[in-house]
Amino acid sequence: MKKNQRLYEILWFMQQQKRFTATEIATRFDISTRTVQRYIVDLEDMGIFIEATKGKNGGMELISQPLLPPILFNQEEVISIFFAIHAISYIKPFPFKFNTEQAKQKLLSISHKQVQSQIIHLEQIFEIKIPDQKISAPFTEEIIQACLKKRIISGMYHSSKKRSKKKLEPVGVYFQSDFWYLYATDCELEDIRHFRIDRFESLEVSNETFHSTLTLNNLAEKITTKETFQVGIHLSNIGVMRSLENQLLAPYLTVNQDSSGYLDLPLAKEDIDYTFSYLMTLGKHATIEKPEWLINKFLANLEDIKKNYT
């Protein structure tokens, strides 16, 4: 095993232990205590502070420090992190304030010259590009902090239908398709709701806290308990290609041998308007086949649109 990889594994072991001894490290990695001492000197030379205590109950421990110590990444990890940081630069504003260009330069400065050269070359032929945000979401950072501290938030929210005052227990924030979104429990409705953060006109984080075990990871279980109905939608080959790009629809899509497809979609009533809007973008490449009442509702929606042109 290469020395750098061994150092990384020893550092990882140290971080998992409150206290440790040279003998424990030697046993864990099947090396001599003399070799352990040399590795500890190497780690200290890298700026990692290790405190040693002598005596019967002695041992060593890592000293907490505000800056992260150097981390031993391999070539693939450095390149992946570099381009991930670059992709983040397109998300504006990003809730965790940092200079992406400065972060990339720091990463390059601690990398081997061969890795630096490869990254410079890759920048000319490879890019992870996210479209620039056109709409600002200024309350994103405050909402994330409210999620972490489990504090109730309130503010004026302008949905596509109405403007209203909201009091919410925030669950989690995520970024998708150019927008920041919030899942939260609406205190008035006592139910989970979905909000676009840029639509908050004002926001206040109160000192009032709440108790909840909900997270973005287990939220799906709660949401899927809502009453839904099945929608069947036939797609042309072009409709299939576009729907495969939609991560909300793709899991419910079956592709036929002729490249056409079928969406068997569980839909909640509050999601009908969004679904109609999406189907409009597919035009003739999507046809609702069931239920009948939804087909009639969609046709009525089209008639309302036609009135704008008469």
UniProtKB/TrEMBL annotation:
GO molecular function, one term: DNA-binding transcription factor activity
Keyword field: Transcription, Transcription regulation
Domain of life: Bacteria
InterPro entries in the record: CBASS_pafABC_assoc_protein, DeoR_HTH, HTH_11, WH-like_DNA-bd_sf, WH_DNA-bd_sf, WYL_dom
Gene3D superfamilies: Winged helix-like DNA-binding domain superfamily/Winged helix DNA-binding domain (1.10.10.10)
Transcription regulation recorded as keyword: yes
Protein name (database record): Transcriptional regulator, DeoR family
